[in-house]
Amino acid sequence: MRHEKATRLLDLARMLAGSAEGLTLDEMARNLDVGRRTAERMRDAVWTAFPQMEAIDDPPTKRFRIPSGLDGVFQTPTAEELAALRTAADGYKASGADARAASLYALEGKLLSALRGAARRKVAPDVEALVQAETIAIHAGPRPFEDEQVLAAIRTAIKGLQALSFTYGGGSTPGRTREVTPLGVLFGRSNYLVAAEGQGGQPRSWRLDRMSDLKVLDRPAAPPADFSLQAFADESFGIYHDEIQDVVLRIKATRAEDALRWRFHATQKVVQEADGSVTVTFRAGGMRELAWHLFTWGGDVEIIGPQALKDTMVRELREAGLAHGAWVESDA
């Protein structure tokens, strides 16, 4: 128990040393999943151990931080942390995300080079043992496009709040030059820039592998104050954005255990019915991608609504059946 308390205090110290603006008591309590009074006692304990901690007025509250960081002895990564970093990097590389893999490998090298010799020799065998014993299953699907120069240009524009231009090989007018306000990047089976074109344009997705001749423009282009990339991503099942629908699914009782553990969507509500079946509801666009996913559930899922999702599922099944010589009932 004493060891656990000491670990929690060190976690808090790292948070306070890693935050440029500092943390309020409420933020400490939320990050540590404790009550405000407990957070206050933990803050006082950390302040005793690290007297360089400072309080910053931020009316109507105060923020606390350790401005000079922590000594290296408190920052030595564990074998589990280094192994998780390596496994994540290997997973990115195997899936084709070479740019992000390179960044994680570089971070691993920096962490190891910062360790003292004795600490590095102690942790290295455990890291290798864990890496050999753990891996990530790579699922079938398109390899994401991650050209380092494309990502570098996008990130430069985002950091500098500048406009970005590129030639786009997709859409209704392939080859047209676009000038956009970059808002973020969505990584997935395919990678997309989220950006708004023109004054007051709505955010939309642009595939990175269809972009060329990128230029960061000397023109300010700040994102809207109320824009959230996570909220934009949550509007759709997958990447494609279309009309937002109220989705209702019913999963048979025989698959209830799987359904209760499954994450269909960030906004989902899951209810187990009296007969053992599970009802899942959420709001999202992207009915085609959702239909593709629901096909993996076979006959264990029933689409209650919307009708657009039912129609999409029937159409996809009909096209697959025709392609494989199956008899498919006509619309007549």
Overview of the molecule:
This protein is of the alpha+beta class. The chain is 42% helix and 22% strand. The chain is built from 11 helices and 11 strands. Strands 6-5-4-3-7 form a 5-stranded antiparallel sheet. Strands 9-10-8-11 form a 4-stranded antiparallel sheet. Helix 1 crosses helix 3, helix 4 runs antiparallel to helix 5 and helix 4 crosses helix 6. It is globular and about 70 Å long.
Helix-strand layout with pairing:
Elements: H1 2-18, H2 25-32, H3 36-49, E1 54-58, E2 61-65, H4 79-94, H5 98-114, H6 117-133, H7 148-160, E3 162-168, E4 176-186, E5 192-197, E6 203-207, E7 211-220, H8 229-234, E8 245-251, H9 256-261, E9 269-272, E10 278-284, H10 287-295, E11 301-305, H11 307-323
Antiparallel strand pairs: 1-2, 3-4, 3-7, 4-5, 5-6, 8-10, 8-11, 9-10
Helix pairs in contact: 1-3, 2-3, 4-5, 4-6, 10-11
Largest sheet: 5 strands, antiparallel
Contiguous uncertain segments of 5+ residues? none
User: Which structural category do the helix and sheet elements fall into?
Assistant: alpha+beta
CA gyration radius, whole angstroms: 25 Å
pLDDT averaged residue by residue: 85
The fraction of residues in strands falls at 15-25%
Query: What is the element string, with H for helices and E for strands?
Result: HHHEEHHHHEEEEEHEHEEHEH
Q: Main sheet: which strands, in order across?
A: 6-5-4-3-7
Q: Could you give the count of β-strands? A: 11
